[in-house]
Each structure stands twice: as structure tokens, then as C-alpha cells.
């Protein structure tokens, strides 16, 4: 199913399990079902065991920043709302507001065959601003408590410049240990530029 958001210059399409995605008055809402996630444990060899979770993704052109305030209805460990980038079946990344495992935390996962897992800043409450940016073959992750001053979280690549330029990006909800959770995204914004400076708070 295709979804168009007025804030974005590109259409979105649903992937994975049904996320019951809806959009009204500037708020995008999605639901993760029980034990839905995308993660390939680095301690195992099963590259096919990523699992799946509801995703709403599109293909922006050129440099960009995708921004949203993410709010998660936490009920179980590792419930999360996610900004997501997908380059290939074994190359994708997540910027999450996650209950990790009992404190809301900005977490990142970069998967190149297997997934890594890294925690960043903790969050008071159930909302935080997240930003994913791309230029050339590079992605950057940032987070903000107020939508104005941004904390640098991660800089990485997922493939060649051609592969990264064709990446799908957007939104995901997950509940890997629980019975499901609801995620909302508001203050959604799209910019066709790379940040001027990754580390100065802008």
C-alpha cells in the first residue's frame, strides 16, 4: 500500500507485517505486533534470521534529512519507534527510541550481514526527536530532546554510493519481547540538504 505524507517529497510504501499505518493532522501512527523486530544477532551465524516488523519506506533522491518527534507507548523491554534505512536484504540501519531494557534510550543498530547494537543518550519520558541524514555513501544519526539542539549519535556507510543513493528510508515500529506497542511520529520534516556540521548541535 502506498502512503503520501504532505511533509515528504516522495511516496511511502508499506513493508513487512501490517502496521495499521494511519496519518491525520500531522501525526503518523503505526503498531508493532507481538515479537516483531528486525535484528540479526552478532553472536549467531543465521543471516536469514532478521525477523520483520512494520515499515513505511520511500526513496528520496540526493542529500536529505528526515526528522520526526517519536513517541512510543512502552509496555515491554525493547519496544521502540524507529527511523530506518534499507540498502539491501543484509544492509540496513535503525535509529530507535527504545525501552532498553527499562529506561527510554536512543539506540542504534547497523546491520551488515549481522547486526551491531549501541546505546546512546537516555530520555525522560516517552518522546524524543530523531534525525537521519544522507550524503553520498554516508548516513548520519542525530537525536534531540527539544527539536532544536541535536546530539550526534553515529556516522556510517551501508554500501557503495550507488547502493546508498537508492536506499529506502522511513519509519518502523518494533516489539521484540512484548505483545506489541503503538508508535506515533509528529513534527515530521524533510530537508534536501546534509547538515552543515554533524557535531555542533545544529
From TrEMBL:
<dbReference type="Pfam" id="PF07081">
    <property type="entry name" value="DUF1349"/>
</dbReference>
<protein>
    <recommendedName>
        <fullName>Regulation of enolase 1</fullName>
    </recommendedName>
</protein>
<dbReference type="InterPro" id="IPR013320">
    <property type="entry name" value="ConA-like_dom_sf"/>
</dbReference>
<dbReference type="InterPro" id="IPR009784">
    <property type="entry name" value="DUF1349"/>
</dbReference>
<dbReference type="InterPro" id="IPR015987">
    <property type="entry name" value="UCP022704"/>
</dbReference>
